[in-house]
């Protein structure tokens, strides 16, 4: 999407976005995402966190670590039944077993198994489109893998971001994932470090203040928000 077409979804420019970022950062502090010990763990976590809370993912990852299975070839060697049992705390475990196996097979076959080189060095759009072609990987998971595992400058959009963006006037009500992602990437400096921190701060904002039933009184962006109550 080009700049002209994406602007219809947005109401504030670069200055507004960075002002929001500064207020969130001053309030919440650095988030140091993703909470994974290495890039492979981040990828596994990105798949398992679909439709569940991160606390549930932590339990599933703890199971994999306890069994000594949090490694590509060891996970691939697991039967579907055994993997499902280990990742059960993350919910939808049968579906996630199929998705995780698909991702593992993709990593194993990519560039003769050198998946790190592919994710980190291939042109960003090519790496993203390739991930999106893998069963079970949607835009949010693909961008999470690229940003948090491969340190690539792609902005992650989630439900927290869309809700906050619509309320504060960054995005209009009909903005979807790709439109919102394009707007952020066109409007602020293209930096993996900035995107990482910004997305994490938006999650914190969505969890603490910009909830389905908003808690505006102590929100750090209260004075900027036309929807504040």
What does this structure look like?
- By secondary structure, the chain is an all-alpha fold.
- The chain is built from 13 helices and no strands.
- The chain has helices at 3-6, 14-28, 39-48, 54-66, 72-76, 80-86, 93-109, 115-121, 124-132, 139-149, 159-168, 177-187, 192-208.
- α2 packs across α13 (192-208).
Describe, in short, the structure shown:
The protein has 229 residues and is mostly helical. Helix content is 59%, strand content 0%.
Please count the beta strands (DSSP E, at least 2 residues each): 0
Distance between the termini: 34 Å
Number of helices, where a helix is a run of at least 4 consecutive DSSP H or I residues: 13
| Stretches with pLDDT under 50, minimum 5 residues | 1-8
Strand content bin: under 5%
Give a quick account of the main beta sheet: strands, pairing sense, barrel closure.
Answer: none
Assign the structural class, choosing from mainly alpha, mainly beta, alpha/beta, alpha+beta, or little secondary structure. Answer: mainly alpha
| Cα Rg | 18 Å
Q: What level of helicity do the residues show?
A: 55-70%
List the helices and strands in order: HHHHHHHHHHHHH
What's the shape?
globular
Query: Roughly what is the average pLDDT, rounded to an integer?
Result: 92
């Amino acid at each position: 999407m080009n700049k002209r077409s994406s602007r219809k979804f947005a109401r504030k420019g670069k200055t507004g976005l960075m002002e929001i970022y500064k207020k969130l950062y001053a309030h919440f502090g650095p988030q140091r995402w993703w909470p994974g010990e290495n890039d492979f763990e981040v990828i596994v976590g990105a798949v398992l966190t679909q439709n569940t809370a991160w606390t549930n993912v932590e339990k599933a990852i703890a199971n994999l670590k306890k069994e000594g299975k949090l490694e590509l070839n060891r996970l691939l060697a697991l039967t579907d039944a055994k993997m499902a049992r280990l990742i059960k705390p993350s919910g939808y475990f049968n579906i996630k077993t199929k998705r995780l196996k698909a991702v593992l097979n993709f990593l194993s076959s990519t560039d003769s198994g050198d998946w790190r080189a592919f994710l980190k060095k291939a042109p960003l759009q090519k790496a993203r489109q390739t991930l999106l072609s893998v069963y079970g990987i949607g835009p949010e998971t693909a961008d999470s893998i690229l940003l948090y595992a491969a340190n690539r400058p792609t902005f992650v959009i989630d439900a927290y971001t869309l809700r906050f963006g619509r309320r504060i006037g960054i995005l209009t009500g009909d903005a979807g994932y790709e439109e919102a992602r394009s707007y952020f990437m066109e409007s602020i400096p293209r930096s993996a470090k900035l995107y990482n921190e910004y997305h994490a701060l938006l999650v914190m904002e969505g969890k603490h203040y910009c909830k389905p039933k908003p808690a505006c009184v102590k929100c750090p962006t209260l004075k900027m928000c036309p929807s504040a109550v």
